[in-house]
Glyoxylase, beta-lactamase superfamily II
Amino acid sequence: MIHIHRFIFNPFQQNTYLLYPDTKECAIVDPGCYTQEERDELVAFIESNELKPTLLLNTHCHVDHVLGNAFIKGKYNLKLMAHKNEVELLQLAVEHGYMYGFTVDTPPPIDTFIEDGQVINLGKSEILALYVPGHSAGSLAFVCKEEKIVLTGDVLFAGSIGRTDLLGGDYDQLINSIKSKLMPLGDEFLVLSGHGPRTSIGTEALGNPFLEDKL
């Protein structure tokens, strides 16, 4: 069974997730830790729970989701895994940080490209990657089938969807990704988004205003 812990980091109130099965291997998804205090908080949780980080995953590479990539990669000697279509976005992180008032060090490049439908091993557990473009060109969702949980990055939120006016965004593509990849998971799936509270596929299918007449 995969356990999940959420941190809320940086001024964008971004959700960073730790996924860890009973065997204590740990995946760090979208590390947004920016200040030393935030880094210390994440490390303290890992150490107090005796976890062993083995995966560094990005749902996508907007600046608020990658602020801690360099720190995590360096501290735990991990390879950064993301979709190939996020390379350009990651290269613009310093510029985007400047636009929002952040001083951002040049982030490390993607080491391993994740494909649609790829199964990623976390100890004896599995994480399924789904390609869900529209918020960005290479957005991914990470599915824990046994636990009925999906990490959607900034594709789907409680009562909303990701913005599509940034580089790589496409509204019709985003709606199609949600319709064809996320909704078929089933109403019972818990949705953990890149910002804001948790929701479920069923809740969003019934009440998300952006999905009306789209399902």
Remarks:
- The chain has a mean pLDDT of 96.
- Residues 2-211 form a domain with the Metallo-beta-lactamase; Chain A fold (CATH 3.60.15.10).
- The longest helix spans residues 36-48.
